[in-house]
Amino acid sequence: MKHPLRLTACLLLAACFLPFxxxxxEKYELKYGAQRTEKxxxxxMRRFRDHRVGAFIHWGLYSMAGGEWKGKIYxxxxxxxxxxxxxxxxxxLAQMDRWNPTGFDAREWAxxxxxxxxxxxxxxxxxxxxxxxxxxxxxxYTVANTPCGRDLLGxxxxxxxxxxxxxxxxxxxxxxxxxxxxxQLNCREDSTxxxxxxxxxxxxxxxxxxxxxxxxxxxxxGTWDASVKGNGAWTLQLENMLKxxxxxxxxxxxxxADERGSRHFDSNGRLMGDYESGYERRLPDPVRDxxxxxxxxxxxxxxxxxxxxxxxxxxxxxxxxxxxxxxxxVHAVSMGGNMAVNFGPDGTGRxxxxxxxxxxxxxxxxxHNGEAIYGCGYAGFEKADWGYYTRKGDTVYMxxxxxxxxxxLRVKTPAGTAVRGAxxxxxxxxxxxxxxxDEYNVNTVESSEPYVIRLTVDAGSAEGKYRDALT
Length: 471
Ligand code: H79
Prior knowledge:
The protein has 471 residues and is of the alpha/beta class. It is built from twelve helices and 16 strands.
């Protein structure tokens, strides 16, 4: 009788300690996996994180077609039109003869993005189609060989920087214009071609990093094919090359694979690159996925369901109204992430009316309430059904999207955190009352738009006293 009991006790004890023992130990010895175990936390990384909200801009040859090829409208993502309509590369790239964005004014774009409250802009330097917005020496498929002829990327970098906005470069590794690109490496010929492709990619990135040294971030895409996954060492080499060329530059996780083919997170579960970039058109669950609050991440979103490049028909899918865009921005920040909101100007270089209105609306909201977004992060409060919390030190912001039926907003604080004050952004006091241990009621505010209540909290306090400060 004794033995089985002892065995059970031993097993139980072992089970208790197992997580502690295995934690921190690497299952695999990796050379090309994560390069650090903690969050990156230098000045450049904090700058990236504190900005919290940026614009994404997709602009390329696909912006001229707008989802239509030979009279047929394709409802899929406009920047993938070449694939949907099965257009051969030479025919697709022949559109360069018509690339002449007469309505383009970099300073106007920069003023618009600045006024919208964005702190940085991610620009497609080259999307899957392979057309370069800068005059690259590596390929004929660039702005230099169009009727326009100008360095459009250079104009954008200058204009955004002049407005005080950081510029991030989107770069697709997958390139439909280069016959050396391979999705898989099945034979020697594939491998030889892909080696050439790797040199080509390196040269393009070297150009970008040296021509535009004010670039703050590289956001890689088109890295999901077996050819790239099987070249984990190379992805790390690219990351290191960019970091050598541009001190402080940040790089997203999507570039990276380790030597075992794991992407974003290495085979030991550690994040590669500087921040997670897997939240594309989706967001973490505020109840189940709280581990994302421990790392840096950036989500990105489209305004229609899935259109990044300009599509002429936005009636094909649900288009998020500005308040829904804001909700996603706030959701991301409330979970310690950034959000990049996409814009797809057309082939003439103009933004559609809906995007201008969105930028105006967001800008107006951010001018009044940006304090609750910039430099803020996860508050550590339980999810509330009226909206989201963000936090900066001992200031917690309630961003109210859903007015409750009653006149009170329920706030559950983490154990021992007391609310000391509540006010609107302009300083007007808001009534609140402690209703139970670690629970408060805060008065609602009449508002036709999402609004912010600023709480001052005392995280070091023991349980507070009931207070009757309701007005
Ligand atoms: O630039 C925007 C999109 O065009 C790009 N990323 C954003 C920022 C993007 N392209 N594809 N995707 C996102 C999703 C990837 C889908 C894939 Fe597939 C699944 C690629 C390979 C498998 C679908 C099926 C597309 C090709 C085959």
